[in-house]
Structure prediction request, 249 residues.
Amino acid sequence: MNTSIFIFLLTIWFSISASNPTPTRSYEWDYLIFAQSWPITTCTQWKESKAKNTCHLPIDRRQWIVHGIWPTKRGTKGPFSCPSPIHFDPKQLNPFLDQLDAQWTNVHKNSEKYSFWRHEWTKHGTCASTLPQLNSIPNFFKKALEWNKAQNIADMLTQSKITPGQNGYHVEQIANAVKAVTKHNPMIECVFDSHTRESMISEIRICFDKSLEVIDCVQSHGINNNNSTNVITNCSLKKPIMYLDTVPL
Ligand SMILES: *[C@@H]1O[C@H](CO)[C@@H](O)[C@H](O)[C@H]1NC(C)=O
Ligand SMILES: *[C@@H]1O[C@H](CO)[C@@H](O)[C@H](O)[C@H]1NC(C)=O
Ligand SMILES: *[C@@H]1O[C@H](CO)[C@@H](O)[C@H](O)[C@H]1NC(C)=O
Prediction:
């Protein structure tokens, strides 16, 4: 080949590869976010998103339910949907289906029975499964059920006299109630409800290291800490947060 043509082609190749660097996907993560939801808020959002939506609430009306266990790399979200040989298999949940229904409830009644659990396994479980303690479908789901009992949000809040009803609470009160028990900073998520025009508590997240010890949560998932309060939250800091006992619809 003519040298100048060769150099010409080489130049093109370099400029293409420089402008389109091969993405180096990393499925590494640093810590786990254990997210628990307040089902009344989940249901409110679901019903407001479509008039025909219906809810399936846990039988125990004080029960905070599992949303998921999310492996997270510091400073970002995810990784998500990692390459894993383990494909979601609903049959593997059958031995503890009643516990899942009570503690990891699919509030979205008019959705496919296993859809919530399938989504959580596929998006997060496949990444978490690099940890020996979470390396199978039963281990992953059972760990969440165990943590839901050990990190009982309703009990933590009740100990600080925060109970579901029509009273609002300051987000710092809620964070302090959790921290009083876990000794570490949680992450607190609210949704603004367009119907009631109130800020409603939707999730409380507790973070764990790879030895499955509770640690301080750090900013992630778009939830910042407001430096003046040190609470990691996207709830309003000015308005009371509603912790309702019934769906306001
Ligand atoms: C808080 O963040 C979640 C997503 O993580 C979002 O769905 C929600 O609307 C946010 N709430 C507010 C009040 O901005
Ligand atoms: C808090 O401080 C950090 C670092 O100084 C900054 O990046 C962040 O934007 C601040 N957050 C708020 C809500 O002011
Ligand atoms: C942070 O919190 C303080 C005190 O509640 C509040 O005045 C301020 O507006 C908040 N800042 C942001 C960015 O939310």
